[in-house]
Specification:
Elements: E1 3-12, E2 16-19, H1 20-24, H2 31-38, E3 42-45, H3 53-67, E4 77-81, H4 92-99, E5 106-110, H5 116-129, E6 136-142, H6 155-158, E7 164-173, E8 179-187, E9 195-196, H7 209-212, H8 227-231, E10 238-239, H9 241-262, E11 272-275, H10 280-290, H11 301-304, H12 311-321, E12 330-337, E13 341-348
Parallel strand pairs: 4-5, 4-6, 11-12
Antiparallel strand pairs: 1-7, 2-3, 6-7, 8-13, 9-10, 12-13
Helix pairs in contact: 3-4, 9-10
């Protein structure tokens, strides 16, 4: 049986560290308030210019490719997960292909926000198992800092997010004791708007009714981005935190148990759980629900904040670099995010 294995892994976080105290200078918040609700002490922000979602991805990818013992010319497919691309279009996958001077390979962009990397890994896994590709570069990268509302008005969202990138190289393996055992993907769009960035977009829903009147002047472009949207702070992310939390604490453990059951395993068999770093309180709830010990779960949201699609590969890479993951270990990746989407992957390292 052919499975997919992670042959190389890399991560990159910007040098600029922004603490809770730094945020207190621009908004009405406190270190105690942020830590109590999220567990975050600091996060990294990319340079305003010079660092992009793509450049950070390239940094992480270069490390993963080197650790896999191959070169950029050996990569035959790219799967790139992000909610903060360099451009509205084209996607970041082709920008990585160009920046790393790869062959004219396929590049696929995944838009599943916090679940993006696990979704991307699942997609790449199918291509490896069918034999279509041999060296797939899977990336999760985010530059949130350029699009957050750094005022008291936006503090509930802005204190949470950070920038960074993680990448893996996926290759085939025939070892019975190695590789991705299964992946599990889900979605429920019923409450999609409670965690969303509405603008710019092609919708015309209830929050857009003010802008509909501007059609009288024939400027249809006002529906895409208008001064009214900016004045009313409608160009920033929107989140109903308590509602997201309630859904996450149900679906997170549920999708992990689904992966374990599919492979006739239990939570006690997990060597390392890498949860998406959405909120330390969510991770702690999931840990308690599954009966896992501290050494079975790796959290780093305290240092990096929520890097959405990048959080799972960054945490996975960091745990591996710290010696917490060794060959033959059972590793579970899990994520829950906007959409809502949630997913898990179970693998033998």
């Amino acid at each position: 049986m052919v499975r997919s294995k992670i042959a190389g892994i890399g991560m990159y976080v910007p040098q600029q560290v922004f603490t809770n105290q730094d945020l207190m200078k621009v908004m009405d918040t406190s270190d105690e308030w942020i830590q109590e609700r999220t567990g975050i002490k600091e996060r990294r922000y990319a340079k305003r210019t010079g660092e992009t979602t793509t450049t950070m991805a390239v940094e992480a990818a270069a490390i993963a490719i080197e650790r896999a013992g191959i070169t950029a010319q050996d990569i035959d497919f790219i799967v790139f997960a992000t909610l903060s691309p360099d451009y509205y279009f084209p996607g970041c996958g082709v920008l990585v292909q160009r920046a790393m001077k790869m062959k004219e390979i396929g590049a696929l962009d995944i838009r599943n926000q916090c679940s993006g990397f696990v979704y991307a890994l699942s997609v790449a896994d199918q291509f490896i198992k069918t034999g279509m590709y041999k060296n797939i570069l899977v990336i999760g990268s985010e530059k949130h800092s350029f699009g957050l509302d750094f005022s008291t008005r936006g503090r509930n969202v802005s204190v949470i997010f950070g920038d960074g990138a993680g990448a893996v190289v996926l290759q085939p393996t025939t070892k019975e004791t190695q590789g991705i055992l299964s992946t599990h993907l889900h979605s429920d769009g019923e409450a999609a708007e409670i965690l969303a960035m509405y603008n710019p977009g092609t919708h015309a829903n209830h929050w857009m009714q003010q802008e509909v009147a501007t059609f009288n002047d024939g400027n249809l472009g006002d529906m895409f981005m208008s001064h009214a949207m900016i004045d009313n702070a409608q160009n920033f992310p929107n989140m109903d935190g308590p509602s997201v939390f309630k859904k996450a604490v149900v679906k997170f453990p549920e999708v992990i148990m689904e992966a374990l059951a599919a492979n006739q395993l239990t939570a006690a068999d997990i060597t390392m759980l890498i949860p998406h770093q959405a909120n330390l309180r969510i991770s702690q709830f999931v840990q308690q629900k599954l009966g896992l010990k501290d050494e079975q779960v790796h959290n780093n949201i305290q240092k990096y904040g929520n890097t959405t699609a990048a959080s799972v590969p960054i945490a996975l890479c960091e745990a591996w670099q710290q010696g917490k993951i060794k060959e033959g270990d059972l590793v579970c990746l899990a994520a829950f995010g906007s959409g809502f989407t949630w997913a898990s992957a179970l693998l033998r390292w």
